[in-house]
C-alpha cells in the first residue's frame, strides 16, 4: 500500500480482520467523503519525521504538544494478540485520535453517517486524524507491522469507550456536527 485509499467494507465476511474486506465491485470512498465525517489526512516524508518542518507546522497549528511512538508487531508489542483484539473493538474517544505511520501499514475503520464501515488503508508517511466521538477501530494488515507516532493535544488520554456510547456528550456533538457540515 503506497497510495492513501478508502472503501466501504464487506461487513458480512468472517475472514481475517487483517484482510482488505473490499466489496465486489469495490466501492471507493473519496477524501471529500472522509472529510465530511471529520477524518483528515496528510502525506508526509516519514524518513525525516524527527526534523520535518511540515510535521512541525501541523503540530503547531493543531496544538499537538505530546507524542510517542508505538510499534505494533508480535515481537515488539507485549501481549500482541490481546492488544489487537482490543484495538479492533468498536469504540470512540473523548479526544481526536492522531496517528502518523512511520513504517509498515495498517487499517483504520470508521463509521459513516449511515453507520456503514469505511476501511482506510494507511502506510508509511500517512498522518490521519479521527475526530472525537467517531466510532472506529484499528488493525494491522497481513504484514503484522506498523510503527506509528501517536500525537495528542496536551497530556495523552488512553481511554477508549466501547460501543454503545451514544449517550456521551462528545458522541452527540459529533453526530450533530454531521448534520451541519
Describe the protein:
Ni(2+) binds at residues 91, 93, 97, 136. It comes from Danio rerio. Fe(2+) binds at residues 91, 93, 97, 136. The protein is α+β, with helices and mostly antiparallel strands and 181 residues long. The chain has a single domain, classed as Sandwich (Jelly Rolls). 20% of the residues lie in helices and 32% in strands. It has four helices and ten strands, in the order E-H-E-H-E-H-E-E-E-E-E-E-E-H. The strands form two sheets. Strands 1, 2, 3, 5, 6, 7, 8 and 9 form an eight-stranded antiparallel beta sheet that branches. A hairpin with a 5-residue loop joins strand 5 (97-111) and strand 6. It is globular, with a radius of gyration of 16 Å. The mean pLDDT is 95.
Offer a few descriptive terms.
single chain; 181 residues; alpha+beta; Jelly Rolls; two-stranded antiparallel ribbon; 4 helices; 10 strands; 20% helix; 32% strand; methionine biosynthesis; nucleus; amino-acid biosynthesis; acireductone dioxygenase [iron(II)-requiring] activity; iron ion binding
Structural topology:
Blueprint: E1 5-8, H1 31-36, E2 40-43, H2 53-62, E3 66-72, H3 80-88, E4 91-92, E5 97-111, E6 117-123, E7 126-130, E8 136-140, E9 146-152, E10 161-162, H4 169-180
Antiparallel strand pairs: 1-6, 2-7, 3-9, 4-10, 5-6, 5-7, 5-8, 5-9
SSE ordering: EHEHEHEEEEEEEH
CATH class: Mainly Beta
The Rg value, from CA coordinates, equals 16 Å
Structural class: alpha+beta
How much helix, percentage-wise, in residues? Answer: 10-25%
What best-fitting shape do the alpha-carbon axes yield?
A: globular
Number of strands: 10
Biggest beta sheet attributes: 8 strands, antiparallel
Predict the CATH topology: Jelly Rolls
Relevant CATH superfamily? Jelly Rolls
Low-confidence stretches: none
State the helix count: 4
Chain-averaged pLDDT: 95
CATH architecture: Sandwich
What is the count of distinct domains? 1
Q: Cα distance, first to last residue?
A: 30 Å
Strand content: 25-35%
EC number: 1.13.11.54, 1.13.11.53
Subunit structure: Monomer. Interacts with MMP14.
GO molecular function: acireductone dioxygenase (Ni2+-requiring) activity; acireductone dioxygenase [iron(II)-requiring] activity; iron ion binding; nickel cation binding; oxidoreductase activity
Pathway: Amino-acid biosynthesis; L-methionine biosynthesis via salvage pathway; L-methionine from S-methyl-5-thio-alpha-D-ribose 1-phosphate: step 5/6
